[in-house]
Amino acid sequence: MSLPHALLTSLIERPSSGSELSARFDRSIGHFWHATHQQIYRELAKLEKAGWVESFFAEEGERKKKTYRVLAAGREELKRWLATEEPPLPVRSPLMVRMRAAAVVGTQGVVPELRRHLRLHQEKLTHYLALQARDEARCQGSSTELVQLMILNSGIQLERYWIETIEQAIAVLAQHSKDVT
User: Among 22, 109, 106, 27, which residue's Cα sits nearest to residue 66?
Assistant: First the structure.
């Protein structure tokens, strides 16, 4: 996946200013594709130069806000990209590398980091479950809503996987190390 296609998707859902897009991105696509505000603004300029989006100034109170919307060429690019093949990306996890390193040089300091990650994944799971309850209650059964719920469910499953994996790692280290704190 690429950032331009993520932004095109978001802008098709709702034309937005750069700041609105960044905020929406953080609350939705940002759960599985991270981008900084600077990256988003740079990419918007590239999308506009490519003729995939256009900007216009919308009145917002007493200010004018630069807003972006997708042009026909942008929709066509998104359709083209949807039809292309892309191999699955390998998982890149510094935490897994830490656990592997702990296996060969000792567990000094890794358990507190595992516990911190466990807490973060538990918090994210709690957040996703709250979103799921809210979204299921609002769901009218449209294909867009059902796909969004499916994506959210995959995030829930992923967080559960990480929680289980980290809990197993802590248990293994507790059995085989005096360094567990």
Answer: 22
pLDDT of 178 reads: 54
Q: Is 128 exposed, middle or buried (0-12, 13-18, 19+ CB in 10 A)?
A: buried
Half-sphere exposure in the Cβ direction for 96 (13 Å, CA): 6
Handedness of CA 103, 106, 111, 112 (dihedral sign): negative
Distance CA 20, CA 17 (A): 5
**Number of Cβ atoms within 10 Å of the Cβ of 162:** 19
To the nearest 10 degrees (0 to 180), the angle between helices 94-105 and 110-138 is: 150
Q: Give the angle 21-124-97 at the CA atoms, nearest 5°.
A: 100
Q: What is the pLDDT of residues 69-89, one digit of tens each?
A: 999 999 999 999 999 998 888
C-alpha–C-alpha distance, residues 23 and 45, integer Å? 18
Report the C-alpha gap between 144 and 152 in whole angstroms: 12
> With 50 as the cut, is the pLDDT of residue 181 above it?
no
CA distance 16 to 66: 8
> For residue 79, what pLDDT is reported?
96
| pTM greater than 0.90 (yes/no) | no
Question: How is residue 178 annotated by DSSP?
Answer: S
